[in-house]
């Protein structure tokens, strides 16, 4: 029997070599095809692609294929699309859309006595005294008449209650406070490990701005107070028993133990412990203030050493002797 002939018809060729050749040819074909698409993609203008926040909103059409090396769409038929329209997203609280190309931060100040100001200083009861320039003697009013005018568009008239497309939920203070504490508690339970962590909630620090609250003259405050309040039933008007109850109810359901450091009640008694007028004054006192010290007495902050050292004792007790 003679040796196998390797003629031109190839019938004696090894099956292994034939499979190898076909595989190599297939890989070569795919590589060339892929390189063509890849090189075409690389020539897309990367420096001009949409901003990141726009790219995240792109809605993928069913008849398109997303190429992972860029943010551009390539049709199945092979026609390249260099851009894609972002899907319209309805943002919470939005009742309209800004004009295209409008940047409200770019513009100029325009003097407009007809449109500004919106209100008079004395008409708004919520302005703090340190902000009422007219009441404290500022001689001019020109600063009130300047209006900001963006380039190419205008600011919408500020009126949060004008549009009918609104959903306003009126809540009691205690209910709203409970929702806030619930959100805090949810974060605590998700991020804190009770095996190696401790969590404490410190209640509100009270103020003593009206001496009539504890039965003294109606025009006084914490100024010249030298002794604590002796009435153990005293509860200042600035502190809510309802909120204190909510604190207890919310944290009593926690999976993560939360230690409540109640500084409120014991601090309510200490009308004598505030800094009063005995602190660094950042601005020179006026003759009127010097003549009436209680007018600038600080009845919010506390002297040290003093009451706040007791707060630390409470925390120490809760931490090491729960």
UniProtKB/TrEMBL annotation:
Domain (Trichome birefringence-like C-terminal): residue spans on this chain: 145-317
GO MF annotation terms: xylan O-acetyltransferase activity
GO cellular component, one term: Golgi membrane
InterPro entries, A to Z: TBL, TBL_C
Keywords, in A-Z order: Membrane, Transmembrane, Transmembrane helix
Annotated TM spans: 16-35
Domain of life (superkingdom): Eukaryota
PANTHER family listed in its UniProt record: PROTEIN TRICHOME BIREFRINGENCE-LIKE 33, PROTEIN TRICHOME BIREFRINGENCE-LIKE 9-RELATED
Family: Belongs to the PC-esterase family. TBL subfamily.
Protein name: Trichome birefringence-like C-terminal domain-containing protein
Organism: Eleusine coracana subsp. coracana
